[in-house]
Each structure stands twice: as C-alpha cells, then as structure tokens.
Specification:
3-stranded parallel sheet, 41% helix, 78 residues, alpha/beta, flat, 3 strands
C-alpha cells in the first residue's frame, strides 16, 4: 500500500475506511497515517453504515471521500 500512498501525497481530503474487523481497521489507519498524508479519516464498521454516511454527504452537498478503502467480504453486505 505504501507506493500507492506516496502517489497521494499531493492530495488532501478524506479517506473513508470500511472494515468490519476492528484490528484490521486499526492496522489500515496506522499504515495510512505513517505516510503522513493530509487526509482526515472516517471509519465505518460495515457497508450499511458507510452507505448511510455517503448518502448524508450527498444530501448535504459535501465533498465525497478522496479515497475509499473497503473490505470486500462484509457479513451484512454479502
């Protein structure tokens, strides 16, 4: 993931992390933070919470996340 993060160093905004495993979610946050990027982090523990968050952002005309990192195998979404 580090090479990808280096490409993002000139970006700013928000990273949405969608992961149902708390340990994995924390590891992702630590890894991204270690790259010292100018992003705010939003963490959601499942796909339903993430969809609700994205709907609220759209309704408020907020900027969508610059990056979305997600677990493809989540219990509520499969």
């Amino acid at each position: 993931m580090k090479p990808i993060l280096r490409e993002c160093q000139s970006m700013a905004g928000e990273i949405l992390i969608i992961e149902d495993d708390e340990v994995a979610r924390e590891a992702i946050v630590r890894s991204v933070r270690s790259a010292k990027l100018s992003f705010n982090f939003v963490e959601k523990e499942d796909g339903l919470a993430a969809l609700e968050y994205l709907r609220e952002q759209a309704e408020n005309d907020d900027e969508p996340p610059a990056i979305i990192l997600l677990d493809l195998l989540m219990s509520q979404m499969n």
